[in-house]
Amino acid sequence: MSDGIRDLLDFPGSALRWSGHEVGLIDCSNSGPVLFGVNPLGLLTVFAEDMANLPDWQQQIWVGNGVTPEEKLNLEQFTIQVRGRPINSKSPEDELKEVVERIHLASESAFGSSILRVHPDFDAIADTCHRFRGTDYIGLGALAKDIARITADSFDAGLCTTVAPLPKGVSSLKGNKAVENLVASKIGKDKARTLMGPLVGTYDLRLTDAHLPGQNAAEAAYRLIGIDRSKPPVHQAVELIDAAAKALGGVASVLQDWNLKRE
After folding, report:
1. For residues 218-256, b (16+ Cβ closer than 10 Å) or e, as one string?
2. What is the structure's pLDDT at 218?
3. pLDDT at 59 over 90
4. Domain extents in the chain
5. Residue 247 C-alpha from the chain's centroid
């Protein structure tokens, strides 16, 4: 049903929201949102009674993309819909958006300006950075491309190299490398390289999305990001988004510490 989610999101006014790491809500009509879970196979699970109140055209999309039930509900959906209890987790999709704001606040406080330029279409791009984009190899590359648009492509290399001068013999640095140099000035080159690895891998993956899987460049990118290629594609997409969010979170922490040491 992962492809079905994308079909539903194509309708004007539709929305995808997350209630936890593995549960969310899809809403594309006045009939109300439908809670879904993502099981270990990367398949969406929904309760039949939640389908009953949907208009026929939506039911047809769900049924048309349905398969015989496999695997159990994930624990989060079971806790919400069977036990009736709240959960306390956050999706990597939401983490990605929040950590961008952390970087803005921390770098503006430390340097008077953000190391991330505000992309005019940030909200629209961030909304497309969800796991259901990565249902196959091409989709994973497209997801990486959008994550790179709001990270590597938006880093202010000029500001970074003003704060942390270029290494001897280096004439210029762009994007991820400029930020890596900035971070390295505080935590050292090795730690900075490890921290920025997932963002570098994401940028590299976006450059390979037009090529066949299995090529050396793509496989190296997967390793840098930390994607387990044995997992279902949707879970690989989760790992991609999560790795990018964690790397940005590491950068934000360095910037926050930078600011504290100035006080």
Report:
1. beebbebbebeeeebbbbbbbbbbbbbbbbbbbbbbbbb
2. 85
3. no
4. 2-81, 92-262
5. 11
pTM, full prediction: 0.91
* Long-range contacts (CB closer than 8 Å, 24 or more residues apart) made by 37-41: 37/73, 37/74, 37/76, 37/77, 38/74, 38/131, 38/234, 38/235, 39/70, 39/71, 39/72, 39/73, 39/74, 40/71, 40/74, 40/232, 41/70, 41/71, 41/232
Residue 35 burial (C-beta neighbours within 10 Å; 0-12, 13-18, 19+): middle
CA dihedral 107, 200, 224, 244 (to 10 degrees): 40
Tell whether the model's pLDDT for residue 261 goes beyond 80.
Answer: no
Listed in sequence order, the residues at least 6 apart from 64 whose beta carbon sits closer than 8 Å to its beta carbon are: 4
